[in-house]
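We treat protein structure as text, and this decision shapes the records that our systems exchange. This encoding replaces a full spatial description with a residue-level series of whole-number codes. Below, we set out a record of this kind in full and without editing:
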Amino acid sequence: MGLPSTILGTVAATSSTVAFVPQIAKIWKTGGKDVSYFMLSLYLAGVTLWLSYGLVIGATALSLANAASIVCAGTCLVLKLMKEKPCRAERKRLRIAIDMDETIADSLTEHIRRYNAEFAEKVDVDQLHGKHLEELVPLDRSDAVRRIIRDESFFDCLAVVEDAQQVIRELACEHEVFIVSAAMEIPESFAAKHRWLQRHFPFIPMGNVVFCGDKGIIDADYLIDDEVRHFHSFRGTGILFSAPHNLLETACERIASWQHIRRKFVGLRSS
């Protein structure tokens, strides 16, 4: 091979190699969204074959230039993979809205306890199959049943639903979690609910606590709630948290416990 041919081959190989330098810089800055994996892979295969060809014919300049091209194209491919990994993880970050009463706060147990104490009754949870407490009691006691939950002290002493704290803490590490309560139905509950959340869920920022009327205003991917009516105007996916009063509902996805919720969202995260 003559000197002119060697120079020509060296300049051509060097140009194709150096052309990747600005591409590397662009991928470093932008993540390489507009760079095709297929193109990079095909180019790597091509220059690898050219390297093999150069070694076979003893063309040192050609071999060195293609080896450098392999390094540059390989760097682009690795950088693209590294830069896009956080982006994929970020896309999987969900907005999850979670109701309070009968979802994370066991209001039913306290409601029944106070009703039984006031009227010397022995109502238990099993009697509420498909009904709220006020639908079960005699008609002349309905107002008294509603009055019980309007007492501010009612919300201060509620127990936490089993596993809710642990699972929601885990969800909050992976996703954006909101506590959403239709508190406008019982405005007397605002302060007590706020205190209860601070005591039991201090890891949820107060900016992520929403007291509202219509939960359709919430912009979230999922709403976990014990009342089907809150899903009617909600634009995301409603998940019904099982409670005695909703056991007859069949129109939406149902989840029976916080451990089931953990398994569901771990499954989403890994899919």
Notes: Confidence is low (pLDDT under 50) at residues 87-91. Residues 168 and 177 are 8 Å apart (CA to CA). The domain at 3-87 is CATH 1.20.1280.290 (Monooxygenase). The chain has two domains: 3-87, 95-106+153-270.
